[in-house]
Amino acid sequence: MKKIMTITILFAALLTILSGCSGGTGTDEGRNNSAGGSVVVGITQDLDSLDPHKAVAAGTKEVLYNIFEGLVKPDKDGNLVAAVAESYEISEDGTTYTFVLRPNVLFHNGKTVTAEDVIYSLKRSAGLLDTSDPEVQTVAALSVIQTIESTVNSEGREEITIRLSSPNTELLGYLTCSIVPCDYTKQDTEPVGTGPFVFSSYTPMDSVVIVRNDSYYGQKAHLEKVTFQISESTDAAFVELLAGNIDIFPYLTEDQAAQLAGQYNIEIGDMSLVQGLFLNNAAAPFDNPLVRQAMCHAVDRQGIIDMISGGHGTIIGSGVYASFGAYYDESLAGRYEYDVEKAKALLEEAGYGDGFSFTIVVPSNYSYHISTAQVIVQQLKQVGIEAKIQQIEWASWLSDVYADHNFEATIIGLDSQLAPSDILKYYISGSPKNFINYENDAFMQTYEKAVQTTDAEQKKQYYKELQRYLADDAASVFIQSPALLVAVNPALDGYTFYPVYVQDMASVYYK
After folding, report:
1. CA-to-CA dists, residue 30 to 24, 214, 508, angstroms
2. Which residues of 278-302 are buried (b: 16+ CB within 10 A; e: fewer)?
3. Domains of the chain from N-terminus onward
4. Percent of the chain clearing pLDDT 90 (strictly above)
5. What confidence tier does 323 reach under pLDDT thresholds 50, 70, 90?
6. Which helix (H) or strand (E) holds 378?
7. Torsion of CA 445, 446, 448, 452, to 10 degrees
8. Mean pLDDT (the chain, rounded)
């Protein structure tokens, strides 16, 4: 027997959204009409790929969200809503997903989306094609897929049936993976998707331009053109903001937001990230759990939030952020209170009574993380720890830190699909996401139970248990789910915050 479901997420996102007016430098026509005009959006890192299946960086995915769609896609409330699929069913045992494809969906090159395209896209994302591209970032969660088949139902509609090798009621959160044409070979240079915007041009380290998709099956975008202007850092983008050359820019610090008062509206939401001082558990002295616990007590999370974002932000105590709603364990936020004397005692017990020195590697294009590192350096001095900040380019961070694990500590924000199993995959032994080298057999066993159970209440308890493992082991210094301060030109409206890391330009319009 199958359970028929509407396309909603598996958990309720509890994201506070503060809405207000927004801003822009568009054309005169755009300023006088709710539909039309163009905007410039500032971003602080170059794209690592135009092919959505090869993209790694959250900053790349937030741009490509406007071009590509999956069978389903997230909305601002944390629901997974109809996209290329019109509806779906999940079997009660969690092993079979059946999707009815939306009719007459067009790719940007004019080709109609078919079941063949969907099957190709899913297999490519899962690493199940007969020949694979080593640059494709396969989605480990999709490895549970056993077969993907297409049929035509009694109403003449194409259906996709996905059968799994083991139960997984969270798979929907991973089926946002982009649907692309199966016979198209230029995704690396001229990407083609089904989204509300069409790729126009890309100039490395300069800009990405997208234009409205007038053949879009759903609510068409208001804006005719969006330019994502790439700056080497937040400081460089801030200069452009002050000059009025950028319409929308996220990632502001409180000080920067204050300087823009009167020139831009400042929207405040949530980044939907886990920001942390991530420690290499395989490198001394952070291979000692007592040292990691000392670090947790030595960092004043609220002090960081107050200093950098004016008190906006949510303290976290483990590897899940608050937008995960029922799966989030709020009680862990107080697991390690700021306590200098406790930190010193733990260091003494660990054999580091005289302190130690280490390096915090931070991507140079993220001023928010750099500012966080600067505050932490001063806080750690109170317990005798000397930290040095090393800024590196984003590409170097991806290769040296994320891929090669060649670091002692780093500050970054971790993003996620709308599935709790995905945000916790950063701590799974053998996972390419586990860049901190965390190891805990009990964590692994509980993780498998959490993914496979079809009992909703049991699933919540397993995921909270996983968060407790990370907190008890002090896997890293989990700081906050940061506030997202966004400068928006007062001529614009419709800027929307999401419980995932995206910049949705389809909802933005001139007032």
Report:
1. 10, 17, 11
2. bbbbebebbebebbbbbbbbbbbbe
3. 2-13+46-190 (3.90.76.10), 274-484 (3.10.105.10)
4. 79
5. confident
6. helix 367-381
7. 140
8. 91
